[in-house]
Specification:
This protein is α/β, with parallel strands linked by helices. The chain has a single domain, classed as UDP-N-acetylmuramoyl-L-alanine:D-glutamate ligase, CATH 3.40.1190.20. The chain is about 30% helix and about 25% strand. The chain contains 11 helices and 19 strands. The strands form 4 sheets. It has an 11-stranded mixed sheet, sandwiched between helices. A 4-stranded mixed sheet has the order 5-4-9-10. The longest helix is centred in the last third of the chain and has 16 residues. The protein is globular. It starts with a strand and ends in a 7-residue tail after the last strand.
């Protein structure tokens, strides 16, 4: 007997049913990592110890970064899925499952009665900084070892975070076996040579920061990029919050400067940058267009509380106005090409050859 999917007055043929199921199981993006709800409080400034502060706004949604990216991409109509840790069979756990379902993020949310759903609390201030408090331990993270990885079979990209520890290795290995590129967020952990060797060797794209607070000069940014390239990363990304980002792929280097904005909530800005970059990557945009979009998306996100994404057109409008600096990476050295405002870029592409013969070499002290 032919299998059919029946609803009141609706009969779907087996072939259409199979197509629907296949589409559901084949997301373009798959995130892998811990699942937790988060409460975000926006205030003017952190209070002194043993005092309080007035909270301006409160928001709640699903964390960590892998889940944020899945929700963001889903809002931009990219089929997305989440393979996460188990959550408690409690109110918070069902909130996580319900939110992911409402955001049309594919994947099974598993429930357990062994522990309560972990919770994260973030406090955002007007400087754009965010102070966070989170719960994560081996018991929670170990449930990633039993997560079903079947959604990776036809995924176009897997995202993982270094702070989920060695539990990400199984998913990274499976993605590579299936031919799917791996996007690794290593943040400031590039300072640990063992972590770089173990995780970066399994990744295609790697996003890092200069240090814990994302504060550094151009030299620090270049040093981090060089470290990732030496580890075998194909696309190295270094973000520096309000100072923008540097992206290197092959011998092409793009530095995009962030616009000046009024900060409301910096929570999730890094994940929104990743979302923007992954969006451009999946759309097969140029490296410059992708980096511009990622910075614009993250910048707009900071201007309001929560993770409701701005429309693609609005992000593109801001991206087109951003200042860009072009460099190149050859023979283990960085070379400056030009610094252009976006209005001058189209003309420069016509005038300049693909690989400029005369370049200003960056001082050696900047990259050692």
């Amino acid at each position: 007997m032919a299998r059919v999917l029946r609803r009141p007055e609706i009969i779907i043929s087996p072939s259409v049913y199979n197509q629907l199921m296949q589409k559901k199981k084949n997301p373009a993006y798959v995130g892998f990592g811990m699942l937790t709800p988060v409460y975000v409080m926006a205030l003017d400034a952190l209070p002194k110890r043993n005092t309080g502060a007035l909270v301006n706004q409160v928001s709640e949604y699903v964390y960590d970064d892998a889940a944020i990216i899945a929700c963001n991409l889903s809002q931009w109509k990219i089929p997305s899925a989440m393979i996460g840790s188990a959550v408690g069979d409690d109110l918070l756990g069902h909130y996580v499952a319900g939110t992911l379902k409402a955001m049309k993020v594919q994947g099974e949310v598993r429930f357990t009665r062994k522990y309560k759903t972990p919770l994260e609390v973030n406090v955002s201030d007007k400087t754009g900084a965010r102070t966070y408090f989170w719960q994560r331990n081996a018991e929670i993270l170990s449930t990633l070892d039993s997560a079903d990885l079947s959604m990776l079979r036809r995924a176009k990209l897997l995202y993982v975070d270094w702070y989920d520890g060695d539990y990400i290795i199984r998913a990274m290995n499976e993605a590579r076996r299936m031919g799917a590129p791996v996007f690794l967020n290593v943040e400031h952990a590039h300072k640990n040579a063992d972590i770089v060797e173990k995780y970066a060797s399994r990744a295609t794209i790697c996003q890092a920061v200069t240090d814990d607070a994302q504060i550094g000069r151009k030299s620090a940014m270049l040093n981090v990029a060089k470290k990732l390239l030496r580890a075998g990363i194909q696309t190295a990304i270094v973000t520096m919050a309000r100072q923008g980002c540097l992206v290197i792929q092959g011998d092409e280097m793009i530095r995009v400067y962030a616009p000046k904005i009024k900060a409301v909530d910096g929570s999730g800005a890094g994940a929104t940058f990743s979302s923007g970059f992954i969006y451009g990557y999946l759309r097969k945009w140029s490296l410059e267009e992708t980096a511009r979009f990622a910075i614009a998306a993250a910048s707009l996100k900071v201007t309001r509380l929560g993770l409701k994404m701005f429309p693609i057109k609005e992000i593109k409008r801001l991206a087109a106005t951003l200042r860009v600096e072009r460099m190149t990476y050859r023979d283990n050295q960085f070379f400056e090409l030009d610094t252009l405002l976006p209005q001058a870029a189209p003309l420069a592409r016509k005038i300049l050859p693909p690989k400029k013969t005369e370049r200003k070499k960056i001082k050696k002290s900047l990259v050692e």
